[in-house]
Amino acid sequence: MSPIVITVLVLVGIALLVAIGYINHLVENRKLEQARLKADLSDRCRRCADVSESLPGQFMSPALKLLLSGFELNLSERLLAVDKQNPALKQRMEELRGLVAKGEAIPVKNAPQPILTEAKAKDVRFLFEALHAQLTRCAQDNMLPRAEAQKWVKEIRHLLTLLHIEFFGNLGQQALQQGQPRQARLAFERGAQYLQKQPEIGRYQAQLKQMEAQLAHANALVLETSQPAADEQSELGDGLKALDEDDIWKKKNLYD
Can you count the helices (H) and strands (E) in the chain? Predict the structure, then answer.
C-alpha cells in the first residue's frame, strides 16, 4: 500500500471521528434542550394548575378560570410534543379541552377562604405573583395579545387590593372581638393607608369610607380605655408593615 493511500485513509479516519464526535455533540445538545424544555413546560403547567385550583373563591372568576385553563392547555400541547408517552398528560388535556369549550360557563369550584392571618395573606399574594409571572411569560410567547395582557395585569392589581382590604378588615375585627382596640386601630389604619395609596382610589371609595369608620370606632374605644402603651408596634404591627412593604406591584411591571 502506497504512502499516499495510507495518508488518505488516515485523513478519512480522522474526518470520520470528527464527524461522529460532532454528531454525538448535536444529539446530546438536543437531548439536553428537550429535557430543559420538558422541565420548563411541566413547571409552567403545574403553576397554572396550582393557581387555578388554590386561589380562594372570592378572587376567582369564570374569566380567570378560563384564562388559566387556556394557558395550561396551550402549554400541555407543547409539552406533549416532547413527552409523547405520558398518559396522565393526555388525560389532563382532555379535561382542559372540555373546560375551555364551556367558555364563560366554565365551572368555578374554588371555595371561599377567609383571610384571617398574615401567613394566609402571604400565601394568596404568592399565588397572585405566580399568576402575574405566567401571564407575562404567556404574553411573551404570543399566547395572549398585549392589550389583553394589560387588562389582566390591571385585574390582578385589583384582586391584590381586595386581598389587602379583606386582610386588614378581618384582622381589625378579630382584634375588636378579642378586646384589643389598639391592635384593631393599627390594622384599620394600615388598611386605610393602603387604600389611599392606590392609583385608582375612586374605585375603592366605599371600602375606604368603611375602613375609616372602623378606624374611628377603634380609636374611640382606645380613648375610652387606659393610656396607649409606649410601644404599640408589636408583632401584629410588624407583620402588617412587612406585608405592605413586600407588595409585588412595587416591582417593575413589563406592561406599565
Answer: 8, 0
In degrees, to the nearest 5, what angle opens at C-alpha 71 toward C-alphas 66 and 75? 150
Question: What secondary structure letter does DSSP report for 142?
Answer: T
Query: What pLDDT sits at residue 84?
Result: 84
Residue in this structure with the C-alpha cell 413589563, named with its chain if needed:
254
pTM of the model: 0.78
126 & 104 share domain:
no
What is d(CA 60, CA 253) in angstroms, rounded to the nearest whole number?
22
Last residue of a domain, one of 57, 77, 110: 110
Mean pLDDT per block of 10 residues along the chain (256 residues) reads 71 77 74 84 94 96 96 94 88 95 94 94 95 93 91 94 96 94 94 92 92 94 69 54 55 47
In 3D space, the residue among 142, 128, 241, 220 whose CA is nearest the CA of residue 176 turns out to be 220
Q: Measuring CA to CA, how many Å separate 18 from each of 21, 26, 30, 40?
A: 5, 12, 18, 33
Domain residues for 89? 1-110
User: Residues 25, 43: one domain?
Assistant: yes
Total Cβ atoms within 10 A of residue 102: 13
Q: Using CB atoms within 10 Å of the CB of residue 103, give its burial: 0 to 12 exposed, 13 to 18 middle, 19+ buried.
A: exposed
